[in-house]
Write a structure and sequence with these properties.
about 15% strand; Spore Coat Polysaccharide Biosynthesis Protein SpsA, Chain A; about 290 residues; Putative exo-polysaccharide biosynthesis protein; alpha/beta; 9-stranded mixed beta sheet; globular
Length: about 290
């Protein structure tokens, strides 16, 4: 799909909701009907998903193996102009449903594992998940319809829409990163933030010591906030890119800039809302689970 064929937003003309894709799956046809589905890393892929690609216009599609869904961020930043812009994934979407029963079951499971971790076998990774699994197509369509109504009727009451936070029982943000990734990379990110944007850097200690985090690189934002976020995010990550030796990392750890961007995003939100002046709401996240066949 060429840039000239960029469709209007599937929600409203002033709101563009993007889903990032890298492969064909059971839900692609549905999502490309409702949102702007973007093939991330298209420059590196031989697949033809018949959707918009992130290698059109001004882009960093070739960086997808290290920047992950951020190649869609960059593409949208440089090539779209909607008043609001949002990002979701091929398997994670925002939802306005409450999922009272599912959340109660998740809480019960969490409490069980907490007791087991306390008295039987300690589990340092104990966490309260922030995604509801859905595999039934009718339920997924109903959830998408609710999101459509939210965008049409309520979105303009907010500056930013965020997912519910991920909560870890025993690990704070810094400890969690150290456990799964290279801690030196996180230190470098924070050093660059303090050097380039000291007004954001003042929030580092508070953010890293918390046990909760906005994850998935999902949000809906007003355009001016998105532009400002991208300007700062890519300024820092492009500088980091010059300083990090990727050859020493396996394929998973090479997704470094996707991982680090989640931590920077939390800093950025803390910074822009330091005076509690922004209108922010949080929505549930659904995980699209392909049915067993």
């Amino acid at each position: 799909m060429s840039l000239k064929l960029l469709p209007k937003a599937k929600m409203t003309e002033s709101t563009l909701l993007i889903t990032s894709h890298h492969k064909q799956d059971a839900f692609l046809d549905l999502l490309k009907e409702r949102f702007l589905a973007v093939h991330v890393g298209k420059t590196l892929s031989n697949l033809d998903l018949n959707i918009m690609a992130d290698n059109t216009g001004e882009n960093i599609s070739s960086k997808n193996k290290t920047f992950c869904e951020l190649t869609a961020f960059y593409w949208a930043w440089k090539n779209t102009t909607s008043d609001y812009i949002g990002f979701m994934h091929y398997r994670r979407l925002f939802s306005t449903k409450n999922f009272i029963l599912q959340k109660a079951l998740m809480r019960m499971k969490y409490n069980f594992h907490y007791l087991r971790s306390t008295f039987v076998e300690f589990d340092i990774n104990l966490c309260l998940k922030n995604s509801i699994e859905l595999s039934n197509l009718a339920d997924i369509k109903e959830s998408i319809k609710g999101l459509e109504l939210f965008v049409q009727n309520d979105l303009r009451n907010y500056d930013i829409v965020l997912p519910k936070k991920f909560y870890s029982k025993y690990l704070n943000v810094e400890q969690q990163y150290r456990l799964y990734h290279n801690h030196d990379d996180l230190n470098l990110l924070m050093d660059l933030v303090k050097a380039k944007y000291p007004d954001i850097g003042v929030h580092i200690k508070d953010t890293l010591k918390k046990n909760e985090l906005y994850t998935y690189n999902m949000f809906i934002m007003k355009r001016d906030l998105f532009n400002d976020y991208c300007e700062k995010l890519f300024d820092i990550l492009f500088e980091m890119e010059k300083m990090i030796v990727l050859q020493n990392k396996n394929d998973y750890q090479k997704r470094i800039f996707g991982f680090l961007s989640e931590r920077f995003f939390n800093l950025y939100i803390k910074h822009i809302n330091k005076n509690n002046t922004l209108r922010i709401t949080e929505l549930e996240t659904i995980f699209l689970k392909e049915p067993n066949i």
